[in-house]
Amino acid sequence: MYSFDAVIVGGGLAGLRAAYELTKNKIKTAIISKVYPIRSHSIAAQGGVNAPLNNIERAVSDNWENHAQDTIKGSDYLGDQDAIIKMCKEATSRIYEIEHWGCPFSRTDDGRISQRPFGGQGFPRTAYAADRTGHAMLHTLFEQIIRINEQNNCLTFFDEWFVTRLIVEDKLVRGLIALDLKAGDLHAFKTDAVIIATGGAGRLYGKSTNALINTGTGMAISYWAGADLKDMEFIQFHPTTLYGTNILVTEGARGEGAYLLNSHGERFLSNYEDSKKSMEIAPRDIVSRNMIKEIKKGNAINGQYLLLDLRHIGKKAIMERLPGVVELAGKFAGINAITEQIPVEPGQHYTMGGIDTDADCRTKIDGFYAAGEAACVSVHGANRLGGNSLLETIVFGAIAGENTVKYLSANKKGNNSAILIESASKEEKEKNSQIFERGGKENVFNLFEEMNSVMWNNVGIFRDDAQLKEGIKNLRGIKERCNNIGIRYKGKRFNFELYWLLELIGSIDIAEAVIMGAIERKESRGSHYRTDYPKRDDERYLKHTIASYSPEGARLSYKPVTIGFIEPAERKY
Fold first, then answer.
1. What average pLDDT does range 70-77 have in this prediction?
2. Which of 329, 413, 510, 554 would give a disulfide with 516, using CB separation of 3.0 to 4.6 Å?
């Protein structure tokens, strides 16, 4: 049995930023991650990170209040305003902090951090490192973790490990169980505090920009242990993913002036009332819906996709600000983005919902915190503004770390739960042994693909009651068939049949919470668009959906949205 004061699950930006606070305070900490930290999905973030830096002429009057107003409006007024204000007030200091650590942001001519426009924002406030911002930030933060750990020597990495169970006793976190993927052995961890920072659940869907590791299992183990999930029905679809592969083509391209065109060469967004004014830099939910409408009208190329046109921006600017787009388009579509148009379609991109936390990253379980996309603070509400997710990771990652340090300082009671943890470990080992002994004929990879199809076809950009109810029926059928999955490979080392079965079990429970929330929210708000209820209904649904786990399925309840200095109003751009 391993013993640590704190365990962080997830090695991306939120997890590493939390680890910085713990390591700085000499807390004995473990980071458990399915991949080596700099392979985390944070590395795939492209376009930028928001803060009112006032570094370019068009943004000299920007401030945290403007940033908060845009974020609240972008959330379709479902975001908690206390959390949003906290994030926006800290934004500038967190950006300068990581810049001073060495993050190579793109620069203005006079050497300041440059900023670009992003969808749904009144000022160009998105700082960027060309179109590889997540890559730059993740590497910078990882370097700082290594540096400070060389001084304090209190942080241990468990790379290529997979957490299968969180251990909770009387609403108090006691430990967790994790599978060493390399050796195939389960191990118990005793700890007084856990921070979940495992990212989103994009791989519930077949067409997603997310890495394969983004299955939602971090949410699932929290859900099973008694933490609530919040607002899971709100799934963001990104307008510009590379047709056929769904690799992200950053919103930064549209921020730099790229056009979206139909098969007639028209900038079709001017034909829709909600994007007529903002055009390509309207919020993502609006652009994605209008792209699907345009495709359904018969104005798509080969009836399948639309075009993103960068050519007029010019080779020099493209190569300075969007080199990653050029590289991805060339490698994965055979397109020269400097001289040719890029085929694009909407794809799943972000999970607005997640583990229910307050603005201090606390859950209903003592000693248990969550940050980043795995959490729902909620700063994104019904729709995330691009550039706010990277900001969320470093702001709330730091807050989760700081509050874990405070919690450990105030609760030095000792963890005497070795017997409980050993019992949980034994149960997990028996469960895995039983999986190996099954002789079922179902194939885990086929069932994962079936789940992906259900989510894309029934819980997509446009939803209605019949589709959603068909989706929950089909999903529960897949869940039942999981009991008949046979593991063909009996070896322990890197047994990916076992690994994907464990992932699938968690993903299905998260997917069920998404669909149940969507069925019961009989309105349209942000990314959740019901064709049978096309209007927002503040009287009945200005509230958070809370999903609590039961073996029979998600139990739904609701709680109020925290309203602050901005009253809900019609969302217009």
1. 97
2. 554
